[in-house]
Amino acid sequence: MDLLIPEFGTIFWSLLVFGITFFILARYAWKPMLKALKQRDTSIAEALQAAEKAKADVSKLHAENEKLLAEARVERDKILQEARELKDALLSESRELAKKEGHKMIEDAREAIKNERAAAIQDIKKQVSELSVAISEKILLHELSDPAKQKEIIEKSLVDVKFN
Fold first, then answer.
1. 77 falls within a domain
2. Among 4, 30, 101, 123, which one is most buried in terms of CB atoms within 10 A?
């Protein structure tokens, strides 16, 4: 039973060593340890706040990126629509110009054909008149080669002149 009940000296020295250890620990070890724990707790809290802020910033940036992407898509669609409209306008304008040029070319060709036809008719008339003169000349030379026939033609011409 002696083991279960400590002696007074053991209790005294145990309490004295415990008190000194407690004082030394309280004075020199616990304050720095508590200070270090508090700093660690503060740094963890700041890190959590920074993480929350970063998360909010990332969320905000993501929202801004989505907004910019949507605006870029709208701008792209607008540019594509303008390009389509410009293409359609250019095609329409080109078709109209081609039609006008085609009509002009047809009219020019008709005019050229008309002029060529008139020139051909004029040339034919000239050739016919030259041929008529040549034939008339040959006939007259043949008819006028005889002096009796010359006299007869002159008399007929004089008779015709009197009646006119």
1. yes
2. 30
Looking at the 3D structure of the chain, how many domains does it have? 1
In-domain check, residue 149: no
Angle among Cα 19, 25, 30 to the nearest 5 degrees reads 135
DSSP 3: T
Q: How many CB atoms are located within 10 Å of the residue 153 CB?
A: 13
Identify the band that residue 4 occupies on the pLDDT scale cut at 50, 70 and 90: confident
The token pair at 126 is 């000239």
Reported confidence tier of residue 148, pLDDT bands at 50, 70, 90: confident
Expressed as residue numbers, the domain containing 120 is 44-125
- Please report whether residue 14 resides in a domain: no
If phi > 0 it is left, if psi is from -120 to 50 it is alpha, else beta; for residue 6 that is beta
